[in-house]
Structure formats: C-alpha cells, structure tokens
C-alpha cells in the first residue's frame, strides 16, 4: 500500500512534487526547514515499513536505510518520466515496481522466507 499511495500522490501532484524535489535550495530558510522536517518524518515512516518487512524475512542482510532510499529514489524518479497519456497506468507502474522490489512475478501474496504473506506493494 505504501508504494501505491506514494505513486498516486506523486502523479496526482506531479508538478508540485517536481518543484519540491528539484528546487529545495530555492525555498526560504523557514520553508526549507518545514519541508525537510516533513521529508524526514516520511522517511522514518518508510523505514518502519522496511523494518517490518525485514522482520518477515525480506531484504535479509541489507541495510534498512539503503533499501528505503533505493525504494524512495525509484518512486520519486517517476515524476521525471511519467505522463498520464503514456502507455502505463499508475497501477501498472506500481505493480512493476512491486515485482522489482519484492522479486515476485505478480506482486501479490508475496511470501517471506518464513512463509508469511503480506500485501504492502500490490496496487488494488
């Protein structure tokens, strides 16, 4: 769900996100500070999701912060190339990203090495 929610918001507010991701240095000191606090809080929430997945046997042996930054980097780069009139829907992109991240062919009912199911990445 985190991936689908992130992609939906990114693509819904693509122009705003592009500005925030690329023009942070142009923000006033006060607004930059506000933005960075919110971004840090969001990063911590995503780290919690990755840690939960690690407890279920995913990303074994990988650094949690690097996994988190990798996922967020892949997601955030969508604003550089996504076009509504393009050939892929946000749902399809989310499912492809889920397959990349989780190594699953269909992105759903992904089992950890411990055999636990979870559905954090599948877009409904």
Structure description:
The chain is mainly alpha-helical. The chain has a single domain, classed as Tetracycline Repressor, domain 2 (Orthogonal Bundle). It has six helices and two strands, in the order ααααααββ. The protein has helices at residues 2-12, 14-22, 29-55, 64-76, 78-81, 90-102; strands at residues 110-111, 117-118. It has a two-stranded antiparallel ribbon with strand order 1-2. Helix 1 (2-12) packs antiparallel against helix 6. The chain is flat, with a radius of gyration of 16 Å.
Query: Overall 3D geometry?
Result: flat
Overall radius of gyration? 16 Å
Mean pLDDT: 84
Counting DSSP E segments of at least 2 residues, the number of strands comes to 2
The CATH superfamily label reads Tetracycline Repressor, domain 2
Number of structural domains: 1
Helix content: 55-70%
Run of helices and strands: HHHHHHEE
| Largest beta sheet: strand ordering | 1-2
Termini separation comes to: 9 Å
Unreliable parts: 106-110
User: Regarding CATH, which class?
Assistant: Mainly Alpha
Task: Note the beta-strand portion.
Answer: under 5%
The main sheet comes to: 2 strands, antiparallel
What is the count of DSSP helices, taking H or I runs of 4+ residues?
A: 6
Reported by name, the CATH topology is Tetracycline Repressor, domain 2
Structural class call reads: mainly alpha
Question: From the 3D coordinates, which CATH architecture would you assign?
Answer: Orthogonal Bundle
